[in-house]
Amino acid sequence: MKCPYCKATIDDDSYYCDQCGKEMRFCPDCKKPKIGTECAACGADLISAKEFFGGSKPTPKPTPSTAQPTPSTAPSAQTAQPAQSSQQPQGTVAAPPSPNAPASASGEPTTLVGNGWRLPLKAGVFGRSCGVYPEFKTQKYISGKHGEILHNSKGQWGITDLGSTNGTFIDGIRLEPHKAYLLKKGQELTIATTKFIVE
């Protein structure tokens, strides 16, 4: 279907547009997404996508432009800290290592475990429609081009959110888009609604 706000083509059962982040509202009679509170064609009151589909999918987080961390989830000194240029992955990686780079002597993580998967860390862009993890094509809340896994010359792994609709989180804290964050063993990494443990 087409998003009535930005006209992007999105999945027919989307609750939110994965391009502009707007919540989908449907006319129960016309069976189409509309803008506003009532259908301009038939006058019926619009309903939420959740009501329209009659499902109970988890509600995605708001778009990055409107999301603000609450005081109780402000980043601590040990979690979800932006990468420092002297010691953490850079925002761009000119020549990423081989996809299955081994753990360094310092005990760097090598795997994402969750959702029934064990995914080796691979440097590169990932998303529902592209990248190093084709497994994500079934995850509707992951954006088409969601984020990027980074690997620097010191053997450290990191992650950057590329402005995704539903966000990327480390230990429950939403990452600021286009900033590199260090990945450490034991962290919970959430990509949209898909949770992993970093091992």
What's the CATH architecture name of the largest domain? Sandwich
Unreliable stretches: 56-79, 84-105
Oligomer: single chain
Number of domains: 2
Which geometry do the CA atoms define? elongated
- Report the order of strands and helices: EEEHEEEEEEEEEE
Biggest beta sheet attributes = 6 strands, antiparallel
CATH topology-level fold name of the largest domain: Tumour Suppressor Smad4
**Total E-strand runs:** 13
Counting H and I runs of at least 4 residues, what is the number of helices? 1
Structural class: mainly beta
Strand order of the largest sheet: 5-4-13-12-9-10
What's the helical proportion of residues? under 10%
Radius of gyration: 19 Å
| Average pLDDT for all residues | 78
CATH class call of the largest domain: Mainly Beta
Tell me the span between the first and last alpha carbons.
39 Å
Approximate strand percentage = 15-25%
Please give a structural write-up.
- The protein has 199 residues and is mainly beta.
- It folds into two domains: 1-55, no CATH class; 82-198, Sandwich (Tumour Suppressor Smad4), CATH 2.60.200.
- The protein is 3% helix and 22% strand.
- Strands 5-4-13-12-9-10 form a six-stranded antiparallel beta sheet, with no helix packed on it. A four-stranded antiparallel beta sheet has the order 6-7-8-11, with no helix packed on it. A three-stranded antiparallel beta sheet has the order 2-1-3.
- Strand 1 and strand 2 form a beta hairpin.
